[in-house]
Every structure is written in C-alpha cells, then in structure tokens.
Design a protein that fits this description.
Helix content: under 10%
Largest sheet: 5 strands, antiparallel
CATH architecture of the largest domain: Roll
Radius of gyration: 19 Å
CATH class of the largest domain: Alpha Beta
Number of strands: 9
CATH topology of the largest domain: Chitinase A, domain 3
Length: about 150
C-alpha cells in the first residue's frame, strides 16, 4: 500500500480532544474507523496536511491552533433574534443547539447563548471555533488516487 497523498482513499481511527482532555470524537472507542478521500472536505485542512506521507500502521498526534482547525470565533456570527421567531411553546435555554434556515443556507447549527423575554442571542460559529484541538490518528489503510473505492 502507498503513503497518503492528496486524493488517496484513507481508512483510519481518529480521536479528537480539547486541550483539557475532553474527548469530542473517538473512533478508537466506537470501533468504527473513518473512511474518506484526502482533500474531499471531510477533515479540516490542518489535519489533512498532517496526514500527508503517513502509511498503514503509522500513528500521529497533531495539535492544531484554531486557525488550522475550525477557525477563530467570529463575533459577527453571534446574532440576536426576536423571541417571537421561535415557537411560543418551545422551551428555550442557554446551551440548546438547534438548526436555523438563513435564506439560501439551510440547517445551520446554532447554540443559544442568552434567552430573554423579548430576544434570544444565538452563536452560529462552529462549536469548536476558537479552540485549539488535539487529533490522534492511526492509519489502517491507504489506497492511491484512482485506486480502490
């Protein structure tokens, strides 16, 4: 088998953690490896670049800054909505994640930050935006571009 290059079909185990050790995702634990084509947008770019040149059996731990992973927290993605746009019987509370349709863009996840009588503050940033993350991967299989699918 080959080493990973852009366009390789890759099968690997992946653990994503925050710096405090909180595990966000762990295919080692679930037993379900991740399969993807490098460069297809499945992974954040910083992780893709860290996989280049690895081969089957290789393990790698990568610490990525927010800019390399899910981006910096953008205060322009925090919005206030009138409470009236939410169903009146819906129980709203800070920390609740729900999806929003924003014109042409549909199903955008947002977290409620503050809930008042008249307005609701919603953060539409990725939940990991602004946070450094640690990835640990173990490469299981690599197929060259145009190889097995």
């Amino acid at each position: 088998m080959a080493d990973i290059v852009m366009g390789s079909r890759v099968r690997l185990h992946l653990r994503l953690q925050l710096h405090d050790g909180t595990v966000v995702e762990d295919s080692f634990e679930s037993g379900e490896p991740l399969e993807f084509t490098l460069g297809d947008g499945t992974l954040v770019q910083g992780l893709e670049l860290g996989l280049l040149g690895l081969g089957p059996g290789d393990e790698q731990t990568l610490t990525l800054a927010p800019e390399q992973a899910f981006g910096p927290h953008n205060p322009e993605l925090v919005f206030e909505f009138p409470r009236s746009v939410f169903p009146s019987d819906m129980e709203l509370q800070p920390g609740l994640v729900m999806t929003f349709d924003l014109g042409e863009v549909r199903d955008v996840p947002g977290m409620l930050l503050e809930v008042g009588d008249d307005k609701v503050t919603v953060d539409l940033n990725h939940p990991l935006a602004g946070k450094p993350v640690v990835y640990h991967v173990k490469v299981l299989e690599v197929h060259p571009p145009g190889g097995l699918s």
